Amino acid sequence: MARNEHTSASSSTAILAQASAGRAPEIERMPRPTLRRQVAMRDGIRLATWVWLPFEGAGPFPAILFRTPYKEHALGWARLGALAYRDAGYAVVFQLIRGVGESEGHFAMMNPLDRSDGYDTIQWIAAQEWCSGAVGMDGSSYAAMTQLAAAVTSPPALRCIVPAVPSTHFFKDTPRFGGIFSRQHALGWTQFTAVDSLAELTPGLWGNAAFLGNPAIWQRLLSRPAIDAAGGVLSEDRLGYYRDAVSHDVLGDFYAARMLGPADYARITVPTMVVTGLFDGSMGSQHLWEMLERHAPADVERRLLIGPWDHGQAYVGGGAGYGAHHWGEAGAFDLAAARLAFFDRHLKGEGEGPRLPGRATTFVTGANRWLAAGTYPHPAAREEAWYLHSDGLANLRGHGTLDRTPPESDEPSDSFVSTPDLPFVPVGAFLDPDLVLDLRERERQEDVLVYTSAPLAEGLTLHGRFVAELHVAADAPDCDVFCWLAEVPPDGRTTQLSRGQLRLRYREGFDREVPLVPGEPVRVRIEMDHVGHRLAPGHRLRLLIGSSLFPLLDPNPNTGEPTATAIAVREARETVFHDAARPSRLLLPVLPEDLA
Predict the structure, then answer these.
(1) What is the value of pTM for the model shown?
(2) Distance CA 38, CA 381 (A)
(3) Which residue ranges make up each domain of the chain?
(4) What is the pLDDT of residue 306?
(5) 189 — phi, psi (to 5°)?
(6) Closest C-alpha among 334, 495, 486, 288 to residue 400
């Protein structure tokens, strides 16, 4: 497959990391627009809107709309390659959401009014003399979320959408991963929507290398109470959003008004191409796909594309490798051409759409090939249980094992101590891009349990989402559990394949908080993000279990108090059981070797 001309250097995550380290790159700006308008919404609020029309042809033209919180002079829209749409005969429309830049109204992440604003904007575009009446939507991250918000309102002019790496479940993804609040994201992302220049960003809030050298950011991210941590960084609407996000500890009305439910997914009746990456680190796109498959009309065209990309690369494309993974030209894919072919089919009625080998097309690292199927998860995948074992010393690397045999005796449990005021930070992985997925620093910590398989006698291909089913206890009313699935080749590297996490007060659902009874074991299911990887013979499978992922996620104070107002912190001893009565295990999605 052809490679996109854009590279990972132009991805939003790469640009923001450079800016946070004091090396803000020069932003490529769009040329002067054909039109600039303040478009009125149904409540009278006007939203800043820019239009670029094709140079050739008299029109009218189909239109492609981006609704975004990212200002052009802060992050740049030209890097997205949107002008290629103009050159292909499309009107290109960018609009800033409420409360951003020149757009009026009040800012809020996933403002419930994004739904009606999307509808009103699409219908305004369709009514213009330069528009053919056919509108599609494009964009990644938040600009993917605005596509979904508009699609559920069924605007008559909307013909198709291409959402890439959206957040779709706010307790499995941003701003609360497994229920664990991401103060770093809530501060950094929200501030970014307010600034007019990358130079205005608070150093260290974006990019882990910059974070390491900024003690003030360490203090801000560990300070308590969390509700006061935004002072001096955010103000007005954005400060209000941060305080709302940190204060709502259950999936109630506040978050429900900002998320899509089953009835909403049932109303997405336009062709949809969902795009995500193996290294995105979130579950949003897989959750979106599963909900569309479950609730949206079955006769509507849908495509899923999971490539070898991280969050930013899932729109602009990646390179020949990522961390310890190397695939060369095997992973090359022209995302821009695929999107254009999708729009040509549904906005112009031309062509057959993107040249994807299957309805669900995914890249498998290790095998370094694209895999096609009619559904996702892959219909040939089978669930395979791998069980934890040890002599009670799994926090000393080499003492914990992982195999397909259930425990048959009263194996001793493993335990570690969570210290919320002294969370582990993987310095090497933050400083060296080649170590971005390397877990060797983490697995050497005493507060991390490590379980490793014997060298594999034959290859093992993992494909899909899966769960870690653990029996755990703690001597505190609440604690966090993190799981990392990894591959260990003969050279001893430990490379992350997947991650999942859960704040245990949410073990019975995110709509309630159930404290732990100190010392009483409970069974928990920790959802892990998508894995698509083949382990070669001689390689080993490894599971790490710990209690923190700082600075991305807030350490649990282990007191069971509200996230926003907790001040006191305490250590917590967490115990993992793996005996005959309480078998802890991984339930892995395994593909037959003839598909690898």
Answers:
(1) 0.95
(2) 51
(3) 8-169+259-373, 382-595
(4) 97
(5) -65, -45
(6) 486
H/E stretch holding 126: helix 114-127
548: its two tokens: 């923190």
**Could you tell me the CA-to-CA distances from 78 to 6, 73, 166, 315, 316 in Å, in that order?**
11, 10, 21, 13, 11
SS3 of residue 278 by DSSP: strand
CB neighbour burial string for 176-203, b if at least 16 within 10 angstroms, e if fewer: bbbbbbbbbbbbbbbbbbbbeebeebbb
Amino acid 388 reads L
- How many helices (H) and strands (E) the chain has is answered by 16, 25
Joined together, the tokens standing for residue 591 give 């593909």
CB of 338 closer than 8 Å to CB of 4: no
pLDDT computed for residue 2 by the predictor = 44
Give 514's Cβ-side CA count (13 Å radius): 12
CB-based contacts of 142, cutoff 8 Å, min separation 6: 68, 69, 70, 109, 166
pLDDT at residue 28 in the model: 83
Contact 494, 572 (CB under 8 A): no
Cβ atoms of 79 and 6 closer than 8 Å: yes
Q: Is 522 helix (H, G, I), strand (E, B) or coil?
A: strand
CB 55 within 8 A of CB 65: no
Instruction: Show the CA angle centred on residue 363, arms to residues 5 and 452, nearest 5°.
Output: 130
One-character DSSP codes across 527-585? EEEEEEEEEPTT-EEEEEEES--TTTSPPP-SS---TTT------EEEEEE-SSSS--E
Is the Cα torsion angle 543, 384, 460, 462 positive or negative in sign?
Answer: negative
User: Mean pLDDT per 10-residue run, the chain (596 residues)?
Assistant: 47 70 76 97 98 92 97 88 96 98 94 96 98 98 97 98 97 95 94 88 74 85 96 95 96 92 98 97 93 97 97 94 95 96 98 94 97 95 97 86 95 96 87 87 95 97 97 98 98 96 98 98 97 98 97 96 97 98 98 84
Residues written for the chain:
596
- Which are the contacts of 535, defined by CB distance < 8 A and separation ≥ 6? 366, 456, 459, 460, 461, 462, 487, 541
Residue 393 near residue 415, CB atoms below 8 Å: no
Q: Using CA atoms, how far apart are residues 63 and 19, in angstroms rounded to an integer?
A: 32
Q: Which residues pair with 96 in a beta bridge?
A: 68
Task: List Cα–Cα distances, 573 to 214, 222, 524, in angstroms.
Answer: 30, 20, 17
> Is the peptide bond prior to 379 cis by the omega test (within 30 degrees of 0)?
no
Strands 61-68 and 131-140: parallel
Asked if 2 and 332 count as a contact pair (C-beta separation under 8 A), the reply is yes
Would you state the pLDDT for residue 8?
53
Residue where the block lists tokens 């210290």:
419
Classified by CATH at the fold level, domain 8-169+259-373 comes out as Rossmann fold (3.40.50)
pLDDT at 6 (0 to 100): 38
Whole-number pLDDT of residue 5: 39
Q: What CATH number belongs to 382-595?
A: 2.60.120.260
Give the strand pairing for 302-310 and 360-364.
Answer: parallel
Between the CA atoms of 445, 502, 523 and 519, what dihedral angle is there, to the nearest 10 degrees? 60
Q: Do 98 and 107 meet the contact criterion of CB atoms below 8 Å apart? A: yes
| Contact predicate 74/197, CB 8 Å | yes
